[in-house]
Amino acid sequence: MRLRYRLILLISLLPLALSSQLSGSGAVCCSMKHRTAAVADHYRIEAEFCSYDVTFLQFNLSIDPAIEPIEGSVLTQFRFTGIPSACLGMELSTTFTVDSVLFDGLPATYEHSGEYTLRIFCPSGLTAGDIHSVEVFYRGIPSQGQGFGSVGRIPHNGNPAFWTLSEPYGCRDWWPGRNDLFDKADSIRMNIRTPASFRVASNGILVSEEVSGDSRTTIWEHRHPIAPYLIALAITNYQVHTDTAYPGGLPLPVINYLYPETASVNIPRVAQTPMIIELFSSLFTPYPFMDEKYGHAQFGWGGGMEHQTMSFMGRFDYEIIAHELAHQWFGNMITLRLWPEIWLNEGFATYLSAITYEHFFDGYWWPRWKSQAIEFVTSEPGGSVYCPDTINPDRLFNARLTYYKGALLLHMLRFVMGDEAFFTACRNYLDDPRLKYSFATTADLKAHLEAAYGSSLDRFFSDWYTGEGFPSWHVHLVGQSGYDYHLMLSQQTSHPSVGFFSMPVPVRFYGAGRDTLMIFNHSHNAESWIISPGFIVDSIRIDPEQWLISAGNTYEIAKPGLEVSLSPNPAADYTLLRIPDSNASFRIYTSAGSEVSAPFGRSSDGIELSLRNLRAGTYFIHYKNGNESGILKLVIAR
Q: Which residues contact 401 (CB under 8 A, 6 or more apart)?
């Protein structure tokens, strides 16, 4: 099945600003990467072709951005990781013609069929652990699919351009090789021949550029493990501008390949990149490719793509710069193992770009980002961070769920765990030798979070990762004597998959020109506390610093029921609810929030309650007396 893409029109974002709909954010632009309906089928392909480990890739390609065909070869050096089978599995779109294949330098037979299946038949006598090479010589026009396709060629200012954009499976539309999340090539070498007027941007270090007559040969080398979809190149008449970052005090070149006609506008924008590199390096771990570079290559697409060490940028808005850079840690150094867990890439990149607002620009954009992100996530009642439907491309790269709910999940973990434990867990995850420069699952991340937190996060991930929806909290506050108040906290959930979100809930109380913040560990519905804020409360704000995914939160402050009382209290078998309104209503709740019933009768003195069928303990009677409502605490002691 060919890749299918959709062009989405973007609303421009002014530098350093957020749109009211988050439409110009880095996450939304990044979420418009390649769309494919071939994800589920690909798991079968991965399973079939997972018996070898790629150690080195060399691309020898001739590309002219002004014409459609490309030609050349890709050499794959590999090691068998199991008993060698009769054929080696690769992928290459059948829009290409394979001219020949060499196995260890000798001609090999092959089969190129279907839409992208390439089987190379191995000679006999091979053993596990042996290192071999396969070189595929091919030519043709890259498959375009729909929309931009895996290869783009939109000219700019009358100048031809060529670029690749492979996530998740577009590699097969321009080069033959493995195309999965089981293996990373240990290193790659790009040997690209173009007309002399064009420059090539790619992964790693620029080794050489040699012009001979009317052609230019450009060699790039990248010496770190890299997933297939992160290998890329872009070609046009670039103007190159270099900045320098100093993460940990060490120099790192930031090399920008820009369209000449807009370079003067974009140079000040890319100049913000070094400070973000330095921030991420201080909060997490040093930039993962310090011995090479970071850079940008402008291309004719609306969003951005985090190709390893060289992000391709359709726009240079601040948040897109931060988002694609964040992927160098979360997505590139550590890559998701399974596409349903795409949030490991995109949730982290979205949150890291948001964290920059916390640290820069005097924090002005930080609360605005949080409020808009929460509003966006809660604009629909359901949806999980985990992506159960990878066949649906809109669901896989869903901005609301994969990107923003994933980001806010991390934000809530930070609140629950505290900054020290949260950032320690993230650093330990990035430094884990099993995961570093390899692949990871949500279970891997969760294990590091729990180790730093010192407690299980099963309930949290059940509610917020696989569960759907969000809570709406209600605070019912009733004045008692002096400055004491009875507070009851309840919630409704937006989706039936989660009956109750167990979370610490911050509540700020205001009154008499003063305020105080209290955090309530909300473990069950209609949970109650006696609080003493030290002043008369006249207003309340739930989650004032915007840590939680919630919407529709409400509060009610009830006046003390001066004419309402319980007597006797404590009681044994009987109590009288003295209440003026003969039509008053009431409900009885246990301290755990469960509603119970008791026989009662009305008299001129009030409501007589029989307590014989209730166990000893603490109860709360919620009453409505005319236009007033309130809560009375009842203790049954026997």
A: 377, 383, 384, 385, 387, 395
